[in-house]
Automatic annotation (TrEMBL):
PANTHER family: IMIDAZOLONEPROPIONASE, PROTEIN LONG AFTER FAR-RED 3. Residues 45-514 form the Amidohydrolase domain. InterPro entries: Amidohydro_3 (IPR013108), Metal-dep_hydrolase_composite (IPR011059), Metal_Hydrolase (IPR032466), YtcJ-like (IPR033932). SUPFAM superfamilies: Composite domain of metallo-dependent hydrolases, Metallo-dependent hydrolases. This is Amidohydrolase. It comes from Jeotgalicoccus nanhaiensis. The lineage of its organism: Bacteria, Bacillati, Bacillota, Bacilli, Bacillales.
Length: 516
């Protein structure tokens, strides 16, 4: 059976403002495009768009899907701006699990960047509790959590992380990077079945936002890697819940995952590059920078030694793989470029540079010469800029998120959210690319990109990142029948109206998976 979509504004993403009159789909693919009159005789089902806008479905090239699913049912604090309300919500939070796991703490939401302490948490709950900071590179725990893991003020900091201590050497409750990961691992009580529920919950929400494909990194946080991997394989697929995921493989489980050599689901659940962490995040001042943070001697946190980083890259190369590296500070970026220049990616593949928040002219020139792509998060810009300049100064802030410069150098950029670190709605990211505006302030306006380039980052360029540019990200013959119907013409309305876009229908593999 072939279905014909017609009577709307159908953007192909082949070129700016390029449209077709009708689209014929069959067996999960776009069979033909053209006029209604020439295609109608081939159709057995007709979908009248009634003047609405249709375009390719969107992709988020860097997020954490399982955590999105969990956040939809757990306590999340990222929108809480009152300290007393935050404490009341923490005190009232109850689960039947042995740990309280709470998400989204952001000290920038509170006056004087208020950070709750272990002692204060002890007054709110006696159950072991971890509150994850919004960046997911740090968190705060109570005394019961430290006791559960036999962590005291005399416990040594792990390599690549630390337990924060006050001037008297006492634990404050705050834990960073590798120390945070140890605490988070202790909260895991998941099975393939429970994670399958989290995945399904997250996927249905993403479908409602017009997203059909995500690149996610989940295999190292929920016990044995088989647990989340089996959850994905059991939950998604052509004959299951229709959604496409590319699974970045965390450095800690990479070799085990490769050795397991599981059977994946082509175009639905696929293994992707080795995920490596080079540094932390700006919010916790653990992003690795080449010059100290203002007013300090601190340059952030280097997760790996140069030798260890090179060893990880060589492990990926030995398996004919690319790498995908979290790098926020300019020194972290420099270290990674040194490694990939020394150990090039296999022919026909490209490495992925994730975040690349703080750059320098010399680093941009080096990136432009390499077979790399960049996974960017446009809403980091609007989240960070109100406060990050205080950390690094105005001179360095000129090289925060220089998207237009990167595009002008011919560098491939894919759009993403890093959700649930940021809100996953892709239209917020597209708005940030088009305006670089937040609450009336425009940050580095010379780095604004065009509307078409912004949408490309979530469609055609996202497809290039996973080597599917010939079958995904456009409305063209032979491409996936993955597309969305919108409540407004996103190519002609004002940028602020783009931000308010609502998805009316999402189609994946030719099947409607969401409809308002």
């Amino acid at each position: 059976m072939s279905t014909l979509y017609y009577n709307g504004t159908i953007y192909t993403m082949n070129a700016p403002m390029d449209t077709v009159e009708a689209v014929l789909i069959h067996n999960g693919l776009i069979e033909r495009i053209g006029s209604y009159e020439e295609l109608k005789s081939s159709a057995s089902e007709f979908i009248d768009l009634k003047g609405k806008t249709m375009m390719p479905a969107l992709t988020d090239v860097h997020q954490h899907l399982v955590m999105i699913g969990k956040k939809l049912e757990l306590l999340a604090l990222d929108d809480v701006t009152d300290i007393d309300e935050m404490k009341e919500q923490v005190k009232a939070f109850k689960t039947n699990r042995s740990w309280n796991n709470i998400l989204g703490y952001d000290e920038n939401n509170f006056g004087n960047q208020y950070k709750i302490t272990a002692e204060e948490l002890d007054d709110l709950t006696d159950k072991p509790t971890l509150i994850t900071r919004i960046c997911a590179h740090a968190g705060v725990v109570n005394s019961a959590a430290f006791e559960a893991l036999n962590i005291t003020k005399d416990t040594e900091d792990p390599e690549g992380g630390y337990f924060e201590r006050d001037k008297d050497g006492e634990l404050t409750g705050w834990v960073y990077d590798k120390a945070f990961e140890e605490m988070r691992a202790a909260t895991v009580e998941d099975t393939a079945e429970s994670l399958g529920e989290d995945i399904a919950r997250g996927v249905k929400y993403l479908q409602s936002l017009g997203i059909a494909n995500v690149h996610t990194e989940d295999l190292a946080y929920y016990g044995d890697f088989n647990v989340p991997l089996d959850a994905y394989l059991n939950t998604l697929g052509k004959d299951a819940l229709k959604f496409r995921v590319n699974l970045l493989t965390h450095e800690q489980v990479y070799e085990d995952v490769v050795k397991a050599d599981k059977t994946y689901k082509e175009n639905f659940v696929e293994r992707d590059a080795m995920k490596i962490f080079a540094d932390g995040a700006f919010g916790a001042k653990t992003a690795l920078v080449s010059e100290p943070y203002n007013g300090t001697q601190d340059k952030g946190l280097q997760i790996h030694t140069v030798e260890k980083l090179e060893q990880l890259v060589q492990t990926a190369r030995a398996n004919n793989d690319a790498i995908a590296v979290h790098m926020i500070g300019d020194r972290a970026i420099e270290m990674v470029l040194d490694a990939v220049e020394k150990y090039p990616v296999p022919k026909g593949k490209h490495d992925r540079l994730i975040h690349i928040s703080l750059l320098r002219p010399d680093l941009i020139e080096r990136i432009a010469k390499l077979p790399v792509v960049c996974d960017i998060q446009p809403t980091f810009l609007t989240s960070d800029m109100p406060w990050v300049e205080e950390y690094i100064g105005s001179a360095r802030a000129e090289y925060l998120y220089p998207f237009k410069t990167l595009l002008d150098k011919g560098i491939i950029l894919g759009g993403s959210s890093d959700a649930p670190i940021e809100k996953v709605n892709p239209f917020l990211g597209i708005h940030a690319l088009m305006t670089r505006e937040d609450n009336g302030t425009v940050y580095n306006p010379e780095q604004i990109v065009s509307r078409f380039e912004a949408f490309k980052m979530y469609t055609t360029e996202a497809a290039r990142i996973v080597y599917r540019e010939n079958i995904q990200g456009r409305i063209a013959e032979g491409y996936f029948a993955d597309f969305i119907v919108l409540d407004r013409d996103v190519m002609t309305v004002t940028p602020d109206e783009v931000k308010e876009t609502k998805v009316l229908k999402t189609v994946i593999d030719g099947e409607p998976v969401f409809e308002m």
